[in-house]
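Appendix B. Chain record.
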Amino acid sequence: MKVDIILCGVGGQGILSIATIIGEAAMNENLYIKQAEVHGMSQRGGDVQSNLRISSNPIASDLIPKGGADVIISMEPMEALRYLPYLSKEGWIITSSTPFVNIPNYPDIEVIKAELQKLPHVITLDIEGKAKDAGVPRSANVILLGAAQKALGIEYEKLEDAIRRVFGRKGEAIVEANIKALGIGASYSK
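C-alpha cells predicted for this chain:
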C-alpha cells in the first residue's frame, strides 16, 4: 500500500484533525507514515497545507513531488486548485464546495468549479451545509474525510476506530458526532 495525500484549506477548518485521524488509522495498521510540517499559517484565516505519506514500505521523504499526490483533500475549493500541480494523473480531489473568501481578489467560484469539473476524479460537497443539517456543525472536516475514505484506501472501520482514539478524551458526544459525520461523508465516497 502507498498513498500520498495533500491536505489543504484555511486555518481553523480542521485540516490537522483530519491528518491526525488518518495518521492514527495508518499507525494502527503498522504502516509507515511521514507528515511534512504544516505550511502557511495555522491561525484562523491563513492558508494551511500538509503532506501526508502512508506506505507499507519505508518512506524516504516527507514531501510529495509534483504530480505525485494520489489524493488532495481540501476544505476550500480554491486551495484544491492551488495544489493541482501536485496531483497525479489518476489522483482524486475531494473538496468542500463552499469558498472561504479570505482575500480581496478571490476568484469567481463558478470559474473554480469549472476547473475542478475538468478533472477525472473529483468529489465536491457542501460539507458545511451537510454538517449543519445533521446537527454536527463542528464536524464538517470529518464529513470530507468520510468522502475521501475509498480514495485513501483505508477501511471505514479503521477510520472510525481512529476517531474513537483521537477524540475519546473529549467525551462520547464528540466521538459520536464525528462518527456520524464520517458516515455522512462516506455515503458520497466513490
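Further analysis of this model is presented in Appendix C.
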